[in-house]
Design goal:
By secondary structure, the protein is α/β, with parallel strands linked by helices. The chain is built from eleven helices and seven strands. It has three domains: 223 residues, Rossmann fold (3-Layer(aba) Sandwich); 37 residues, no CATH class; 32 residues, no CATH class.
Amino acid sequence: MSITRVVAITGCDSGLGYALASRIAREGMVTVAGMLNSDSAAAKSLERMKVHSCPLDVRSGDSVTGFKEYVNGLLKENPSYSLYAVVNNAGVMTIGDFEWQTPDMIENAINVNLLGAMRVTSAFLPQLRKSSQNGPKPRIINIASHCGLQPLPGFAAYSASKAGLLAWTRALRAELRGRGSAVAFVPGGFVGSSNILAAQSKACNEMLHHLDPDQRKLFEKRITALRDYLQSAVQNANYDSLTDINIIETFVKALTDENPKFLYKVQSWRYAFYYSLLKIPVPEAAHHWLMKKFLNFPDVN
C-alpha cells in the first residue's frame, strides 16, 4: 500500500502560512491548515486547492485538541494516510522597546511563538511516533527567525520567543533521533508580504496609554515616530501576497530532504552583510551602531 503523506500546518490565514500550505498541497501531500478564521477568503482559496482548513488558536489547549482530532479523523478515515509533518508557523510580533510593551503583548509573544508550538507538537507526538514505524520518517518544522539567532533592540520579547524556539527545536531533534526529526526554518524578511504587523499602530497607541506620565514624557516622540514609520512602511497585505520563490522552495527542502538539516535559512544580501558584521568581535558600541543601521528606525531624541 502506498503511503499518502499528511502535513498539519498552523497559522495559515495569510503570508507565509498561506503560501506554504498552498505549496505543500501542490507537492501532492494532504495538507491541513490551522486558521484563526476558517471561514475567510483565504480558507476558501485553500479549500479550492484541496487543502483542509480547520479552526485553530494555538493559545488554547481545547482548540489544539480540536485540530488534532480533525487530523486524526482524516487518518482514521483513510488507512493509506500517514502523518508526515507538523509545521509550527503561527506567530505574532510587536515592535517596540521592552519597557513600552504591555504585559499582554509580552506574554502573547511567548504564548503564540513558543508555547503554541509546544502545545501543537505535544498533541501530535504520539501520532508522529506511530507514523515513524511505517513509511518515511516524520518531522516537526518550527518557523524560527533571524531575531532568534541575533536578538535586536525593539524585538526583545519576539527575539526571546524565537531563541527559545530554536533551543527547544535542537533538544527535540536529539530526543527524536532515529524516529523522526525536528527542523528549524528561518524564512528571512517578508514583512511587506504579511499581515504580521497589521496591528502595530494599535499596539503603539496601547503602549502610550500603558506608560505612566514620566515614561510617556520620555518616550512619546519615539513611539509616535515608530508608529508613523511602520504604518507607512508596512501596508496590510493580501492573504496571498507572499510569492518569494526562494523562501518557499527552501521550505520545501526542509520538508522533503530525506535527511533534513537542523537549520534551513533564507537571507537577503543585506541580512547576510549585517549579520556577518555582527559576528565580528568588536566593541559593544560598534555592535549597537550596526544594529541601529540595520533596523533603520526613525532616530528621535
